Amino acid sequence: MKAVRFTRFGPASEVAELVDVPEPAPPGSGQVLIEVEVAPINPSDLLHFEGRYAQPASLPAFAGAGVLGRVARLGTDVQHLKPDDRVIVVNTQRRAWCDRFVWPAARLIPLPEADPVDLALLAANPPTALLMLESFGNLQPGDWVMQNAANSSVGVSLIQIAKMMGLRTVNVVRRPQLVDHLAAFGADVTLVDSPDLRARVAEAVGGVRIKLGIDAIAGDATRRLANCLGDGGTVVNYGLLSGKPCEVDAADIVFRDVSLKGFWYSRWFSTAEPAAIKDLFARLVGMVQAKTLRVPVEAVYPIENLNDALAHAQREGRSGKVVLRWAR
After folding, report:
1. Beta strand spans in 164-209 (E)
2. Pairing mode of beta strands 234-237, 259-262
3. What is the dihedral sign for C-alpha 150, 152, 156, 158?
4. I want to staple 60 with a disulfide (CB 3.0 to 4.6 A). Which of 7, 77, 230, 291 is the partner?
């Protein structure tokens, strides 16, 4: 069977290889064999190839975290799944971009029949957005939330989910043309980043305290986000797009009680109770079915065109997710 591997660190499109590997062993007790169908390419996947995500992988390494697949075979003692069930897998070992793999069944839930690309997009970005909104800031309807990298898939998901929760969003982007783009998803305020961001944000929200800032970039972007929050506000960092450490002014921490916290969806998924995972995906699937949540897709590539897909995912200025599809 085929799997995605790399033997050196570098840009994903230059180092990724589709190679032949042995078939997995049959599933054991409490395990299932997954046949992969669809996988979105996320920023964390690109950073993994570059050796800049969490702990750098030991080379040679395999790739891929969140995928949608079908249950091909059950091991013993698996009662809640059946063959052909669709499931989302968050593979914390980052070895999921392959034809088949064996995985513990306990944290997998069967999904309803729907467009597989729509289901696959629930693997990481929408749950990240929902969990951050519900886990930090003690938010109430009418509160403001601010985020950078607002045109990302997490950002677009956060705008829509916040709207459903009765929250208002301030969204920071780098290109003026994204203002109308995000308005179509329900953004309340979208601003192009600039040195006077704090004053412009305060004017846009009428001086109302912003409780929560969501940071995908790190570096100086964390500091600018923290500057815009009200006293006692919380910055939650979930991404490292700048490749730099988070910066926060000491004055914001000491005199205004602004705090910096982190969120890593893979950690949540690997430690959450199965009932919590089931509830999370049931809610997200319901949003997709009700058409109140959509994640834009720019292109879908067959896995055989892996490197073209990765090159596309690396481009700046995309308006949607790039997705890999396995032939079944």
Report:
1. 168-173, 189-192
2. parallel
3. negative
4. 7
Query: What is the arithmetic mean of pLDDT over 168-172?
Result: 98
Between the alpha carbon of residue 50 and those of residues 7, 16, 295, the distances in Å are 11, 10, 26
The pTM is what?
Answer: 0.92
Amino acid 252 reads: D
Confidence band, pLDDT 50/70/90 cuts, at residue 217: very high
190: Cβ–Cβ under 8 A, 6 or more apart, which residues?
A: 150, 170, 171, 172, 173, 178, 179, 182, 183
**CA–CA separation, 191 vs 282, rounded Å?**
33
Please give the pLDDT value at position 94: 86
CATH superfamily entry for domain 125-265: NAD(P)-binding Rossmann-like Domain (3.40.50.720)
pLDDT over 90 at 114, yes or no: no
Q: Which helix (H) or strand (E) holds 287?
A: helix 274-289
CA atoms of 207 and 284, how far apart (whole Å) = 33
Question: Is 299 exposed, middle or buried (CB count within 10 Å of its CB: 0-12, 13-18, 19+)?
Answer: middle
pLDDT over 80 at 54, yes or no: no
**Burial (CB count <10 Å: 0-12, 13-18, 19+), residue 262:** exposed
Q: Residue 66 has which token pair?
A: 């969140």
Give the tens place of pLDDT for each residue, 30-47: 999 999 999 999 989 999
The whole-number pLDDT of residue 189 equals: 98
Cα 77 → chain centroid: 31
On whether the CB atoms of residues 13 and 89 are closer than 8 A, the answer is no
The domain spans of the chain are: 2-121+295-325, 125-265
CATH number for 2-121+295-325 (one of 3.40.50.2000, 3.30.70.270, 3.30.565.10, 3.90.180.10): it is 3.90.180.10
